[in-house]
Amino acid sequence: MSIPAFGLGTFRLQGQVVIDSVSTGLELGYRAIDTAQIYENEAEVGQAIAASGIAREELFITSKIWVANFAKDRLIDSLKESLQKLQTDYLDLTLIHWPSPEDQVPVAEFMTALLEAKKLGLTRQIGVSNFTVDLMQQAIAAVGAENIATNQIELHPYLQNRKVVAFAQSRGIQITSYMTLAYGEVLKDPVIQQIADRLQATPAQVTLAWAVQLGYAVIPSSTKRANLASNLKTCAMKLSDADMALIAGLDRGQRLTSPKGIAPNWD
User: Fold this and answer.
1) What CA–CA distance (Å, rounded) separates 76 from 98?
2) Where are the domains of the chain?
3) Dihedral sign for Cα atoms in the order 221, 227, 230, 234
4) Lower CB density within 10 Å: C or N end of the chain?
5) Looking at residues 24-48, what average pLDDT do you find?
């Protein structure tokens, strides 16, 4: 896979909270860190990474370009600002965070600018986030599927997003699942709890293992050391076909994130 299967998310974490989360995660063995311009925590993430003493080449750092920075005369400058905050010369992966509201900036314009950033060495890979099949098709037409490493989408047992997944995978584009635990909702699900009890695992481990086993990258976040350590153990788990089928049956199209004025017309 071009993207690590397991990373650390930083959504909604700011200030000392995100510094502590990233510092603890790195200490425990996380090496992929996911942030974004709109999270307003890139500087703190960069501070935690710098303080860790871990060599840059051992890390996989992802950030996302916010919609206000999509214009071709703004995108690269905003990426350079992110690099300064993160105290690094390059990102491993840079994503378009959401599609442009009302198509104010055409997909071809911001994807071409993002590809230029890659050619300049500012980022090693590029990709998209929250893109529908139609938007992925536009992105592919602009820069080619081979230049789109991932589509990072809301994906959890209650929203399995199969149409988007199938299209992305058919074009060789990896899926990154965010909100894999559905804000903790799936941790209370009796089916997942039953599997967890049988495997002597946590519901979070079972859910994350399900996503990783399907080939998705996951980026769960936590502020608690115990949860950060527990989640990381997911990498060693293997669910049976029967357990995978049980979780597949939980899909109910329950979308938790759809910001007004920004969200596309979902598939």
Assistant:
1) 17
2) 8-248
3) negative
4) N
5) 98
**Using one digit for the tens of pLDDT, what is the confidence trace for 135-186?**
999 999 999 999 999 999 999 999 999 999 999 999 999 999 999 999 999 9
* 171 contact partners, CB below 8 Å, separation of at least 6: 136, 140, 145, 148
Superfamily of domain 8-248: NADP-dependent oxidoreductase domain (3.20.20.100)
- Whether residue 257 is predicted with pLDDT greater than 90 in this model: the reply is yes
Kindly tell me if the per-residue pLDDT of 1 is higher than 80. no
- Residue 8, phi then psi, degrees to nearest 5: -115, 120
Distance CA 249, CA 246 (A): 5
Of residues 1, 5, 8, the one with CA closest to residue 227:
8
Return the structure tokens found at 28. 């425990």
Q: Residues with catalytic annotation?
A: 39
